[in-house]
Each structure stands twice: as structure tokens, then as C-alpha cells.
Please model this.
Amino acid sequence: MLASFSRPLLAAALIALPAAAHAAGEVNVYTYRETKLIKPLFDAFTKDTGINVNVISASSGLEQRIKAEGENSPADVLLTVDIGRLEDAVKAGITQPITSPALDKIVPAQYRDPEGHWYGISMRARVFYVSKERVKDEALTYDELADPKWKGKICVRSGQHIYNNALIAAYIAHYGEAKAEEWLRGVKANLAQKPSGGDREQARDVAAGKCDIGIGNTYYWALMNDKDPSKKAWADATRVVLPTFKDNGGTHVNLSGVVLIKTAPNKANGQKLIEWLAGETAQHIYADSNYEYPMNPQVAVNPTIKGYGTLKPDPTPMAKIADSKKAAANLVDKVGFDN
Model:
């Protein structure tokens, strides 16, 4: 049974799990993921293993909370939605390495920490939602976002959002900070409006004719198209293009990932959950309920996502992209991207 302990953003407002959660047969998860997205996973895990999952969810501050709790933290596993947060957890000193031949067999080296402190469990790509009527290009690059031909035609959420921060960090990893700054200034010059909203709203604004290209994650378009009748018109007016970097022809991806907490009171159950998340049952849920790219090669990509075309992920190691996270945030401020 999944026990949800969703709380406000401030870590101080998050309540501790009860002492019973430390008992055998349970595992305690802190997560940045929405409860509705992970509940099917944890319900299935409990059904398969008999291990109950207790959850605390928030949109920020979990690494700091776990660090502040110290030896008394009930957390066994941290489940995140961004490579930057995985690295933040390592730097905070709250993780321990996982030794797992099963995980190493499934998760490619570029999607796991070289020392085993984190593993990617699923992928999402940062793509373009383009107007079916006004954009005829079948292939586009991230570099082209700065091309003057798109002046006044690009919509995007805040450059400081973790999804865009990771994309900018990837650009830095490819070309260096100087070229990345030039590129980002070019993208800013092409914006149709002040960055705002979430990824779905970029599709909305393309559908409304406010811009021709919106930037978003792969799964949002699929959810609008397949599961949200109120937003189906936004998907109908757009199509997804898998952009690439010019230098290697790869598409930027980010991870949903996990770490095992250093002070985990239920370490064995925590590792069992992490390994289970990479297995076929969980990977099918990631693929068909959450519309993410499965990490497990034995699991097929959802048909809607597959309809975007064949994904060729950028081979740049995720750890290298994470190293450029701070520089990316500084560039956003330097060029006044969000102003």
C-alpha cells in the first residue's frame, strides 16, 4: 500500500515518517515526482514484493532535509527528475554507492554515476513542439534556435527551470561557455514573448499562433494528445520534432533517477526497490503510463512517443552536463533571458 506524505515546498513543513516506517517490510521514499505519476509504480512494487512504500513528496529542498535529518532520517531512497538534483544529492554527502550487477547490465554507463551513487531509471528528451501549418522543417537543431529566421517565433518557459537549465548546460558541455552565451543571446532575440508557463503552455501558444516553435519534454505532448481532452487541441495543432546538436547529431535527454541514502534504515529494501524500478514491470509503467523512454532495452517505447521518430540520445555523459549546471544558470542571468 502506498502511503503518501505530500507536503508544501518548505522542508520545515514536511513531517517525519512514523517510527513504524522503520520496520521490516517497508521502504521510505523522498521524491520530486508527482504522486499521481509514481503511485502506479509503488502499488505494483508492493504487489510484487509485499514491501510497503511510504512517500514524502515536494518540489524542492529534499536533499537539504535529508542532510539536516542526519542519522535520524527515515529516507531510504531519493527519486528525482533531473541530473542536476542527482549530483546535488551526491555533493550534499547523503548518498551511498550501490553495487548491483543487475543495474549495471541494464543502465548504460553514461546514465549512471561512475562510482555508483546514482542511476538513471527512465529518460525524457527536450524537444520542439512546432506548428503543423507554419513549420515545414522535418529536422531541426538546437543551434538553429538562434537563427534570425526564427525571430519572434520561439516560446519557452523560464530559462532557470531545471529542464532548460539542463539543456543550456548540455550546450555548454558541447561548445563551451563563450559559444553558449552567444547562442543563448540569439535564442533570447528570437523569443515571441517573455518566458513563462510550463511545457504544455508552449504548445498552447503555438496553437494560438503566438509562436511557431515551443520547447518542451517529450511526455507532455503525449499526455495532451492521449489523456487530456481539454488540451487535445494543442497537440492537434502541433507536431514533435526531435532536435539534435550539430556536432554529433544527438538529442538532449534528461533522467528520472534514484539514489540510495547513506543512512537508509531499510537499505536492503531500498536497493530492492531501485533494482525493481529498472525491471520490466516498472519500465512498462514508465513507458505506457508516464510516456517516458524506458531505460531497460527489453521494454518497447510507447507507440505515441515512437511516433516522434527514432531517438538518438546525445552521448555526452550526464555527469559532464551536471558539471555545467551552475554556469548555465549564470548565463541565463547574464543575458537577461527571462527579462
Summary: The chain is about 40% helix and 15% strand. The CA atoms of residues 13 and 256 lie 25 Å apart. Confidence is low (pLDDT under 50) at residues 1-23.
